Amino acid sequence: MPLDHRRVRGPEESQPPEVWAAAGGAGEVPEEEDAAPRDPCALRPLFARAGLLSQAEGSAYVELGGGTKVLCAAWGPREAAEPGAAAAAAGGGRLLCEFRRAPFAGRGARLRPGSAAEREAEREAAAALREALEPAVRLARYPRARLAVSALLLQDGGSALAAAISAAALALADAGVEMYDLAVGCALCRPPGPAAAWMLQPGEAEERRAAARLTVALLPALNQVSAVLGGGQGSPPDAWAQALRLGLDGCHRLYPVLRQSLLRAARRRDAAAATTA
Amino acid sequence: MASVVLSEAEKLYIVHGVQEDLRIDGRGCEDYRCAEVETDVVSNTSGSARVKLGHTDILVGVKAEMGTPKLEKPDEGYLEFFVDCSANATPEFEGRGGEELGTEIANTLYRVFSSESSIDLKSICINPREHCWVLYVDVLLLECGGNLFDAISIAVKAALFNTRIPKVRVLEDEEGSKEIELSDDPYDCIRLNVDDVPCIVTLSKIGYRHVVDATLQEEACSLASLLISVTSKGAITSMKKMGKGSLDPESIFEMMETGKRVGKSLHIALQKILDEEESLGTSRQKVGFLG
Prior knowledge:
Chain A is α+β, with helices and mostly antiparallel strands. In chain A, about 35% of the residues lie in helices and about 25% in strands. Chain A is globular and about 60 Å long.
């Protein structure tokens, strides 16, 4: 991203004021407000819309109640750039995923676009996105081709990767790519404390304070788990299994919403085609 | 990642073998290969270890350097992981080829160590907000023979066990300016408590069953694997699905149970070896790369 030199840029090294506010002991007050117990099984309202970008072959926008906004575009089968690599992939196509955070997406100080830490985090999220989507796409039907998906996180209000997975699957389906199923992502977190229960779809504040985090992706029609990514404070396998069950249940509940939005996009496109014809 | 090309018949042979709990090298589904661990192999580091697991060969060096604590955690030191995929392991790693795998492994290590209880980071802080020890953990892949993640985590744990950080004292004079004094005795150093450092157990799904410590050939037959980090007490600190395929929810639960069981015995065996090596003291004959 080229830097705009006309703008007054901040000093080379700057620190978010929250860090110092918290140290003074006064910063914790506004955060305690949302600490009221909430139903751990409650899902945040999800808004999904497919087919909103005119230039991309497929696109989707997913917004979660707490303010997470993800915009996703899918670019349908193109000839693979490097024929050598395509042949090595056993005849199947390749899925290229990109995950970008808008410079203003996060809370606190704006991260310098293109900084090493930023790039690392984006690359990891992109790899997670690819692993979640690959089992859902029928790549064997696209030999020597590549499919590209790019997710842009406009605002991070927690559960960003999960929202990106859902949006990317929706965008691929909207592009007419052959798929086995939609991949639905769902995030969970466990607040610190010995008896804390796992909560579905945490907000940004909850996610930041969490002792453990988990993101799962499910192909609901096939009942196959396509992504599991999580970590944090150690707990016995039973506790993780319970969290996983809760997450998969959340995915099942989100599935109809995504399907509806896909149907609506198809109807809208039909109507548009009818009026131009 | 390094991989081998197998024909369909070879794959079928491996898959059918796994179904019968008999793998191509004669192991059962929950057996590890014979592992060789040696610590203190590189004298220029604060701690180092080399692990050979079958044909997988890993060298880890830990260097302690002084730095400033992170803003979010002013009273803790921190760890930095770097993974270097040497072109000796496979020609694919030449140039920038190994970079992607390297960052993937480093990110996995960060996640495994993200739990506060895994290592006592407060003990490597010198004075809050100003000085702390930064442990640079450099992982070198010398040979890839399958199951990289497990071998790396064993090597990292052994290297951290071996790490000795010199003791320093902060002196403050009347004007409030601080001075750091290094102890004169080279043997006066802090050791890290590695009891809660997790090890990674990778479970590869082959056919209807899952195996631990897959070789390259077995990895080629597996579409999806689950990576679990387990502490010595059997608690799971992180997990990640890897590979192109997807997994059945039920099999994930089974894999977690197996991972816990296998991980616990792995920790016991590793700790025993490390203690044994430690008890030999300086009289130990170093094997190094000549073994």
